Amino acid sequence: AQSVAQPEDQVNVAEGNPLTVKCTYSVSGNPYLFWYVQYPNRGLQFLLKYITGDNLVKGSYGFEAEFNKSQTSFHLKKPSALVSDSALYFCAVRAQNGGFKTIFGAGTRLFVKA
Amino acid sequence: EAGVAQSPRYKIIEKRQSVAFWCNPISGHATLYWYQQILGQGPKLLIQFQNNGVVDDSQLPKDRFSAERLKGVDSTLKIQPAKLEDSAVYLCASFGRVTDTQYFGPGTRLTVL
Hints:
Chain A is mainly beta. Chain A has strands spanning 3-5, 10-14, 19-21, 24-26, 31-38, 44-50, 56-58, 64-68, 73-78, 87-95, 103-104, 108-113. In chain B, a hairpin with a 6-residue loop joins strand 4 and strand 5.
């Protein structure tokens, strides 16, 4: 069965500092991995995805994520955080033979302090 | 390209009442999903459609929830009768095969009193 773990409920970082939001996954076979961001009273917005190829994936708003197969992780990163990055971040996984069924983590709230 | 549309955005009802939500996916997207997102949790899949057929409804509480996508385009999700624990945001998403990505609507926030 597919599962996603986001071990931190909240991440606090100062503006201008690098940020990391952690995600680990479990899936049979090769995974498709995604990060979404959710602002208050809004739906989920797609940030980036890993399908195959280069383990470092670049996405929207300066975010990137690194796929690590041996550690089954897909951590979200940004070199320099902005106050406007404060939001709820969700990691998601889909098995490549999973019929487009995507499982989401519980979410991590990112708080960037000015 | 227009995004996924949902209505209403907010709904307040009393327990035991009925409620329906509507979703119009991105044009051409054959796969449509309904998720339930309870406050503080990630989205939980309720039902997945491929065109007008149900692919996965294993987590849909079928005694009170129903969904349809009769013409393979827009979809409705109904709750009858509602319970207090149904208070959540109901998200609709559609899947683009070209981009291999799910796109979400703004959601409907349901409050059951």
